[in-house]
Amino acid sequence: AGLSKLEVRTDSTYAKNCVTVWLPNWRSNNWQTTANEDVLNQNEIRAIDEACNHLEVKFKWIQAHSGEEGNEAADRLARLGAAESLRISKS
């Protein structure tokens, strides 16, 4: 037996709302917003949606920079990734 439940913690209200509030409407509206525009980050949101079909997933908002170990680690990795991206683009 593998993983059956997952809790995703995020400090991004946008990311949480994408999958917990807006996603059902976007699916129904052929991935268009209420302003009839393409949904931004659609590929990533679709991938999350697909992954959620196989697990019981709970999305929880957490305060940024509050000492939450996973959040602090994610921030460090994001800074490293951004720095690496800049380094590569300057090459």
Topology:
Layout: E1 5-10, H1 13-28, H2 42-52, E2 56-61, H3 69-90
Parallel strand pairs: 1-2
Question: Nutshell version of this structure?
Answer:
One of its GO terms (biological process) is DNA replication, removal of RNA primer. By secondary structure, this protein is of the alpha+beta class. The chain has helices at residues 13-28, 42-52, 69-90, and strands at residues 5-10, 56-61.
Written overview of the protein:
The chain has helices spanning 13-28, 42-52, 69-90, and strands at 5-10, 56-61. The chain has 91 residues and is an alpha+beta fold. It has a two-stranded parallel sheet. The protein is built from 3 helices and 2 strands; from the N terminus they run E-H-H-E-H. The protein has a domain at 5-64: Ribonuclease H-like superfamily/Ribonuclease H (Nucleotidyltransferase, domain 5, 2-Layer Sandwich), CATH 3.30.420.10. It comes from Notodromas monacha. One of its GO terms (molecular function) is RNA-DNA hybrid ribonuclease activity. Keywords: Endonuclease, Hydrolase, Metal-binding, Nuclease. InterPro entries: RNase_H, RNaseH-like_sf, RNaseH_domain, RNaseH_sf.
